[in-house]
Design a protein that fits this description.
The radius of gyration is 21 Å and the shape is globular. The N terminus is likely disordered. The relative contact order is 0.15. Helix 6 packs antiparallel against helix 10, helix 6 packs antiparallel against helix 12 and helix 9 runs antiparallel to helix 12. It is about 75% helix and about 0% strand. The chain is mainly α and about 425 residues long.
């Protein structure tokens, strides 16, 4: 932590990560993402067993991610107009309640409609939560705060992904639909404690430092890193504002591309791994999803801890490589050991990629650009998942699962090139 950040933290008493607003944000995120992950692999199974096949399974995830991508650019406007409490509350309701409808009526068009509504809820929750987690971060600990927030998004996947598949196999689909609605409703009380508008911590720190845009001594960066410079590549005169204002910042293009490629592979795995392992050993799909979901949030938090102390850019290449190798290992679907090892590699790389790209993007804009960065990052995340699910669904009808995973791994290996160039960019800026 630099000297200015240390003085600011001492003056405001904001050095703790787990303040009350941050804790409530984590609770709301756990409830919302619990409802998201519980059905993420179940709805493709539901659609496939109802006669939709691989294309129908891919369309469920694709429809949800399409709605998410379309909703996310509007979230900063809704936050400014209505505040965090109302907006996040609506997001939680959309994530959970529509699923209860499927326990009463069953049809593929209705399933897609539920996926669209859940996609809007997901877009609201993740954009609002990501920006708020960055605003609530104490000086010098933004990467760690984002890592902690990432754990709140990842922990529900540890239980939700495998539990949804297991429960639907044992009890049927309808109880899982009702449980999803209940989880999101239980998270609603935490929303009442979120900041009504913007987080106040950032405002206090910036006022004391005389830096309303957060450009000088940015508490999210280290001395000598991009986050600690007064330069603002994304906020220069002539840079457009609005939801896509951050997208024209060229320093954000490579992290956005890298994240999109990683989430492309994630969309493939969460949608099709249970289907690919239907003829394999009993419960292998459940265990594989559990392993991946357990490793990813730990890697995301660990990457945040490392990034605040040593710089995030050093983790980018190994993280992308781990995602690619983990995907490539699924060519050996007949080997349970290889499947589990692949999920460990994929989870570690995917968790690290999420934190590294997000922290890097926040370091390259002023605090006033946090909302737009949150939109761009989440757009890349969700668009990648949707494209992965739909594209793989079209591919496997021609190639089968092993070759489909091989093609996905090759695409990921190609992303090592922009990852290497981004690391060179950071080194040149720090020199």
């Amino acid at each position: 932590m630099n000297a200015r950040a240390a003085r600011t933290a001492a003056a405001t008493g904001t050095s703790r990560l787990l303040t009350r607003p941050m804790l409530l944000l984590l609770v709301a995120s756990v409830g919302g993402m619990g409802g998201f992950y519980l059905l993420l692999s179940v709805l493709p199974l539901y659609a496939a067993t109802a006669g939709g096949g691989g294309v129908g399974a891919g369309l469920t995830t694709g429809a949800m991610m399409l709605a998410t991508v379309l909703a996310e650019p509007a979230v900063p406007w809704f936050l400014a107009r209505f505040g965090h409490r109302a907006v996040v509350g609506v997001g939680l309701l959309l994530l959970g309640l529509p699923s209860a409808v499927l326990s009463l009526w069953s049809s593929f068009p209705l399933t897609l409609g539920v996926c669209l509504a859940r996609g809007v809820g997901l877009g609201i929750v993740v954009v609002a939560g990501t920006a708020l987690a960055a605003e609530l971060a104490p000086p010098g600990r933004r990467s760690e705060s984002l890592g902690l927030y990432g754990v709140s998004l990842g922990v529900p996947s540890v239980l939700g992904l495998p539990a949804g598949v297991w429960l639907s196999d044992r009890l049927g689909f309808e109880p899982v639909f009702l449980l999803t609605a209940a989880l999101t409703l239980l998270a609603l009380p935490a929303v009442a404690g979120l900041p009504a508008r913007r987080a106040t911590r950032a405002t206090q720190a910036e006022r004391l430092s005389g830096d309303p845009d957060g450009r000088k001594g940015d508490p999210g960066g280290r001395d000598g890193e991009l986050g600690g410079r007064s330069e603002d590549p994304g906020g220069r005169k002539g840079t457009p504002g609005g939801p896509f204002g951050a997208a024209v910042n060229r320093s954000l293009v490579r992290p956005t591309l890298i994240l999109g490629a990683a989430t492309f592979a994630s969309g493939v795995l969460v949608t099709f791994l249970p289907l690919a392992l239907l003829d394999g050993p009993s419960h292998l799909a459940v265990v594989a999803l559990l392993v991946q979901a357990s490793v990813a949030p730990l890697a995301r938090w660990g990457a945040g801890w490392w990034g605040d102390r040593h710089g995030s850019s050093s983790l980018l290449l190994p993280a992308v490589l781990a995602v690619a190798l983990g995907t490539a290992g699924l060519v050996r679907l007949e080997s349970p050991v290889m499947v589990i090892v692949s999920m460990v590699l994929f989870g570690a790389g995917f968790g690290a990629v999420q934190n590294v790209t997000l922290a890097t993007m926040f370091e390259r804009v002023p605090r006033s650009g946090f909302g737009r960065v949150s939109v761009v990052w989440n757009l890349a995340f969700d668009a990648g998942m949707g494209l992965g699910a739909v594209g793989f669904g079209l591919l496997i009808d021609r190639t089968g699962y092993p070759w489909g995973f091989a093609v996905t791994a090759v695409l990921l290996l190609a992303v090592l090139v922009p990852a290497w160039h981004d690391r060179r960019y950071v080194q040149a800026e720090a020199a």
